Amino acid sequence: MKHHYYTNCVNWPRADVHKAGGLCDMIASATPITRRTFLRNVDRASLADVERALGYAPHDPGAVLRMANDHHVSYHRSRLHGRRCYFFKHSAIEYVFTT
Fold this sequence. Notes:
Layout: E1 4-8, H1 23-28, E2 31-33, H2 35-41, H3 44-53, E3 74-80, E4 83-90, E5 93-98
Antiparallel strand pairs: 1-5, 2-3, 3-4, 4-5
């Protein structure tokens, strides 16, 4: 099952930030992964929407500004309330994908 974009840490439900298993626990227990692993597990259309909103050109291999080429973006696997999730970090903001 592919993971779809849920939300980012800026728009996270306030009551779930410090709740057990919530945002802070998810970040603290995260494991770094490769972009390739991230792409295998997230819905590509959902990711493309987020990339476009961040100003990247998701499906244009000739584009200069692509998230795949941005060395400042990191990819992670973790758990959110006991369920596997994936997220990428861009400009110190976590963008979370869940089932």
